[in-house]
């Protein structure tokens, strides 16, 4: 099953630029068309690995801003096992 990440006031700019977030029930999040992402490091986001500003109420640290090439597609880790966070390195398959 594939679902899209929900739009929030925090990530609205990404949706205005027509960034595509595709998440399967297991495995990485596929990201296309983004110049940068706010990568959640507090681990409290409802849209992890994307920051949704939950750190403001959860007492965590703010996001890590990752610069990307908007013409490329990226696979973002969701299993917390990647040695190349925020990018998937296939560790979820091991």
From TrEMBL:
Residue ranges crossing the lipid bilayer per the database entry: none
Keyword Metal-binding applies: yes
UniProt-listed SMART domains: ZnF_CDGSH
Keyword annotations of the record: 2Fe-2S, Iron, Iron-sulfur, Metal-binding
Annotated ranges, domain Iron-binding zinc finger CDGSH type: 26-61, 62-94
InterPro entries according to UniProt: CISD, FeS-contain_CDGSH-typ, MitoNEET_CISD
A GO cellular component entry from the record: cytoplasm
GO molecular function annotations of the record: 2 iron, 2 sulfur cluster binding; metal ion binding
PANTHER family listed in its UniProt record: CDGSH IRON SULFUR DOMAIN PROTEIN HOMOLOG, CDGSH IRON-SULFUR DOMAIN-CONTAINING PROTEIN 3, MITOCHONDRIAL
Protein name: Iron-binding zinc finger CDGSH type domain-containing protein
Organism encoding this protein: marine metagenome
Higher taxonomy: unclassified sequences, metagenomes, ecological metagenomes
């Amino acid at each position: 099953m594939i679902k899209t990440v929900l739009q929030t006031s925090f990530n609205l700019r990404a949706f205005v630029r027509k960034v595509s977030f595709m998440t399967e029930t297991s495995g990485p999040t596929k990201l296309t068309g983004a110049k940068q992402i706010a990568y959640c490091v507090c681990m409290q986001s409802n849209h992890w690995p994307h920051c949704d500003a939950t750190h403001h109420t959860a007492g965590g640290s703010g996001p890590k801003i990752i610069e990307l090439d908007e013409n490329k597609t990226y696979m973002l880790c969701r299993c917390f096992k990647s040695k190349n966070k925020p990018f998937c390195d296939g560790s979820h398959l091991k």
